[in-house]
Amino acid sequence: MPYLSFLLCLLISFSGVYAQQAVTDSLEGRLQQPGLPDSQRLALLTDLAYYYASSHPATGLQYAEKAIRLASQRYQFRPLATAFNYKALNYQRMGRDSLAITWYEKAIALARKGKYVTSEISAMHNLSILYCDRGNYSQALSIRQRVNTLLAGQDDKRRLSLSLNSTGAIYLQLADYPRALRYFQQARQAAPAAGNTAAALTALENIGLVYKKMGQPDKALQYYGEALEGYGPEGSNIARSNLQANMATLYDEQGRHKEALSLFRQALATDRQAGYSRGIARNLTGMGTAYSAMQQYGAAFNCFRMADSILLQAPDANARCALYATWAAAIMHCPDTALAAAGYNRNGRTEAAYALAGKALAYARDSRLKEREMQLTGFLADIRQGQHQYRQALELHRQYVQLRDTVLGEDSKIAFLKQEMQFEADKKELQHQLALQQQKSRQHITLAAAALLLLAGGGAFFIYKKRRDYRQARSELLLKAAISESEMKVLRLQMNPHFIFNSLNAISRYLLNHDTRQADYYLSKFARLMRSILEFSGEKLIPLKDELETLSLYVQLEQMRMVRKFDYIVAVDPQLATGHTFIPPLIFQPFVENSIWHGLSRSATAGYVRLQITAKGDVLCCSIEDNGAGRQVKENPGRRSYGLQITRERLRLLNSERENGHAALLVYDLEPGVGVQLTLPLITEES
Fold this sequence. Notes:
By secondary structure, this protein is α+β, with helices and mostly antiparallel strands. The protein has 26 helices and eight strands. Strands 2-4-5-7-6 form a five-stranded mixed beta sheet, with helices on one face. The chain has a three-stranded antiparallel beta sheet with strand order 1-3-8. Strand 4 and strand 5 form a beta hairpin. Helix 7 (117-133) runs antiparallel to helix 8 (137-152). The radius of gyration is 33 Å and the shape is globular.
């Protein structure tokens, strides 16, 4: 349940302490003292409104309203802003988000007007957390940036640690795990210096959540355990319940369903006692998920129904999306007898699941959860296909493919941009080193010339200069080679998405036209292909044998996809040791792909793709030919051949790295078809 990450930040506002019951008892006792000045009475009311927010928000709301009345009567605007803030906080804990937003905005406006910076920071901090819970991350980040700007001018490490925690939580939800981890580590370091143990525990829990997202459950449980031990049995009720729910979710994912249920029940009891509706719904959904995994569907459906009734009163888009998606999956997997016992019509199974998944999809779209939207669209497509409603299934599957390409495209784009940024930084650094070295070399040569002219004459200077020139040239060559390697890494990163996306499109078409068994066989081959690509993506050169095996996998997938079959012919010089001859990875694939997609797919007859590799002297001669439609067939004018463009650039860099570069590319026409002559340097283990 991804929305749990932001519940962590609800643990504390800027004056959080432990043992709320003892504190509230003490404050209420002082409030009953006779003759209490209004200023002290007002301070006690706002404190009680704050402390009750964590344990009993309905009571906290009553104290906040009393504080507002008294502050308004006495024209005490700073305490009034604080009372607005705490009234909003109690509404938030009760799940009444619209009212909470209204009162937070009133608190911020009043604090800004009176230049009460501390009050403004506190209200904006809480409002940012609320927007996170509602899935409005852009608004949350905007507010958080304002908070960080204000805190930069305040020497208050206590609130700074909390702000860092909240900033990290937003990046965690956006799946920027390195940045999230960095903010949480900073929060953990800042909290003890400020004497803020609660913020340190929150940071520990959030660090555990990052490691969980990164697929390191053991490390996640280690940090969760440290945080739970820190809270102790008398710790903040909602804080403990949030942590227990996170641990339970991780146990459930590991298949430890009984342990997960035990923790969910403990958290549920705490949240019920505190009247924390969002937490109650979260724990009921978690329990339903665990019961479903244990095939106890009656108990699972009861939990789902109770969670649904609560979320009707306390809207939470993320929570509803998770609930309905899990509920729909349980209905689809539930045996007929258990489904009937739970009150469902066995014949209406798919429609019930479809309706729930449709609701989940709507909430996923509202929250802009693209990955969840993609999964739910695929789920709905599978249901319609199982009902033989192929037109709707096709439309849903097209939406799924579009969303999948969007999700994968964003991931690839982010990965590429990060790599490109790193490349630019590396390249600039290397160029800077080269310029400095050239400058130093010129200075050294001038000084050396003067010294040698005075001491040893022209002959000694000549010898020295020749040696310096040799060293300088060698160093410059090494630096230029490093720059070229950085450029080559970026080109390989561009090549892989090009290869992968074309293969994924082939899978999409295949799934819509073939049965499940063949689709599974196709996907298993694609998985092998992906593994090979990932293994080679970081390599500069790979054995020719591995390149041919990877290319063969790709061609097998295309042969399964194509309506008109074609032959793939490979002829390798028998004198060539393919396991000890090295070439750049994926160098042949763009040309084979062009032959299949733009040649054979447009041909009216069965065809072939022929790859021939021979060694001639110190070069490797490779030809790729097909008998397809040829280049005379008009291409889409808006389409550019990125594969060909990238390969030409790779060959240029390959030539620049070798003293006698032989890499070259020639495209020629056949009758029918197209041929490509690719010349590469013959690179062996000895060379």
